[in-house]
Amino acid sequence: MINGLLFKQMLESGANHLTNKFTEIDALNVFPVPDGDTGTNMSLTFNAGVKEALSCRSENVCEIAKVLSKGLLMGARGNSGVITSQIFRGLAQGVEGMNEINGFQLANALVNGSRVAYKAVMRPVEGTILTVVREAADYTYAFASQTADVTCEAVMDKMVEEAIESLKRTPELLPVLKEVGVVDSGGAGLVTILQGFASAIKGTVIELQKQQDQSEVAGAALESEEFGYCTEFIVRLDDTAKMSFQEHVLRDALANIGNSIVCVQDENIVKVHVHTLTPGEALNLGQRYGEFVKLKIENMQEQHENIMINSAKAEKEADVKKPQKKAKYALITVAAGDGLAQMFKELRVDYVISGGQTMNPSTEDFVEAIKKMNAENVILLPNNSNIVLAAQQAADVMEEYNVHVIPTKTIPQGLSACIMFNPDVEFDINLAEMNDAITLVKTGQVTYAIKDTTFEGMEIKAGDYMGIKEKDIIVSTKDKMEATKKLLDALVDADSEIVTLIYGEGVDEQQAQEVAQYIDQTYGVEVEVNNGEQPVYSFIIGVE
Prior knowledge:
The chain has helices at residues 4-26, 38-54, 61-75, 78-94, 103-120, 129-145, 152-173, 175-180, 185-201, 214-226, 239-244, 247-255, 279-287, 300-321, 338-345, 363-372, 388-397, 411-420, 427-438, 480-491, 509-523, and strands at residues 229-237, 258-266, 269-276, 290-299, 327-335, 351-354, 375-381, 402-405, 442-448, 453-455, 458-460, 465-469, 472-477, 498-503, 526-531, 539-543. By secondary structure, the chain is an alpha/beta fold.
């Protein structure tokens, strides 16, 4: 039997095991871009729920599971996090009213978890975490049904066994996994949690490998993108280094002290970008190969604090000016970068949640934003495919509000939807116009590759600049401007009328104007240039 104490030990063991393994799970991501990362999102989500569950004073499994479910629901980040929260929401429903559970009841609850998770996704994709939980739960339920007095230990062993086998089969169901040579990252995260459960049932709670609070370990993966020092330098190789320099050697050394690494060689010049807490070490590594041509170090912690201070000041001023009378509408959107936030605010957006790639907001982030709005109708614009489910989950949670999600998957889609918003027309008309608008814009993005891989037959090297049209990688090259121009060639056609060019970190105004001039001379369409100040993406391009 599993009682409340053992259930808490299972949760702690699963959370610790996932925290220990989240970077390995992140590495399974198919797209070689710096994104929110499945392992990080699942770890942050699961730790949020487990933290609440461990603080629950009840000794009843049903009560602990209920608290766990609520914590996961509010802490869910990214699609993998939302699906994980739904699996355990179903499990909580499956043990409702039970103080303790036996093996068959556990198997039944796991099946219910898989069913609830499937219902939460509009178009379930096989070869993902959904497949793994369904196949493993069904297999385990059949085993438990045919085994007299089946134990909880036997049920978890079977669940883990089949989850591993199902995970191995995911590349056969998703061709892109097979091409890249990985299994599904979300499924891998689920297997990791289940392994932690099984270990606890046998008497061994898996411990954290590092002496840190559970939430801090996974959180560091996100915070390191925002805090520390953004260190950039260009080194001119000396005569010795010209003969022996290898990008991967320097890149591996930098990986020991930081992340968000770009290391690109162009003849005798090496350009390096790294986020690190020890910029001096990064400079020492670079100086071994020659003389610095250029270097820049920025304190991201200080930048973040300034942003937070300004944001808090703005919110305070907004609260003072906040009218008592309810507004008809409130628009809430997601964006990373002060320039992007300003662009949305100029289009009548009332609240911008800081986030996007590398920083997927949680369900609770949306809920808190909704609570701040004094409006009859609230419209959410997630602007990222990995944030849509969290936004929808927030809308479901806030039943007392009239909240609707426009499923914008990119920044240009979000901007187009906002342009079509009319505060003077009825809610249904706005929803229809905004949903139509997002179908008429094409999105391109230029970012850097974080690993060597082959994607749809294209060989990609770590540090390359990639031009991405919607979800397809069009070009991969060491030259940022070349990648941008080739991406534009794939985006702009005879029907295109306007191009919105948004440049971000690592791009200056002169480079942006060079691209704008290329667009004007090559296609003769209207060009609008904006400094979004966004991280990760050198350029975000919208074509209508």
